[in-house]
Structure formats: C-alpha cells, structure tokens
Amino acid sequence: MIELTEEMQTAVNSALADRAPCLIATASADGRPSIGYRGSMLAFTSSALAYWERTNRRGLENVESNPHVVVLYRNPETRQAWKFFGQATIHRDGKTRDDVMARVVQPELDRDPDHNGYAVIIELDRVESMQGEVLMEA
Q: In the chain, N or C terminus with fewer CB closer than 10 Å?
C-alpha cells in the first residue's frame, strides 16, 4: 500500500523552494529515455504526485505513449532522498487540471502566464530509498 509519509509530502511540496527540484524520468514507447526537472512537482494525495506540464516537449510525448515514470527527489542538505515509481495520466482540462494548477508553486505558474499547461497525475505503485530498498508498494 502506498501512503506517503508527512516527511515525504512536505519535502516534495517544498522541493523548488529548497533548491532541490524533482527529476522525472520517462521513456518513449520504443524505450528511449528522457529526464528533466519538474519544479512544479507536488504531493497530490497520499498515493499520488502531480506536476504542471508546461513545456509540451519530449516528457509529455513520452507520457502519452508510455505512462510508466519515475520521480527522483534528493536534497543533499537534509539527506532526504526517494524514488517514486508510478503511472502518469495527463489532464488537459477539467477539475483535476484546475486542482493541480491551484496548488502549483507560483514561480512555475509564472513561467506559464497564459496557463496553457496540463496537469499530470502520477499514481504511485512503488517508493524506494536511493539504495533501492522498497519502502512502499501497491
């Protein structure tokens, strides 16, 4: 069962402010990997992360064709680090999109002044330590 701890949720939600933005790794349908920072990553529920997709580049293309992703959180100052594995779903409109946009940190929304981005929800199925120890599994 996935039940993100308060420590995990707080860390992810303050990642950008703490200068430790999350990285997301995606792969295309044919397995070509991509990785990028997501300053808008947030703990959406106790079992899901979310972010604001504003670039509309390779990461979005990959999620559309292959929803399996991994998010890396690492803060060297606090020594907190986790890998979050799950399946991503894009929300181009509707309540979920609006709910995510309302929770995204302002600096990320400022980079999308017309709010043309999309909400991406990652339903988690595994959380690991940096050493690969499974901490939670659905």
A: N
For residue 1, tell me if it sits in a domain: no
CATH at residue 59 = 2.30.110.10
In tens, the pLDDT along 6-45 reads 999 999 999 999 999 999 999 999 999 999 999 999 999 9
Question: 135: which 2 tokens?
Answer: 């901490």
Could you read off the pLDDT of 59-84 as tens digits, one per residue?
888 999 999 999 999 999 999 999 99
Q: How many domains does the chain have?
A: 1
Taking the model in full, what pTM does it have? Answer: 0.95
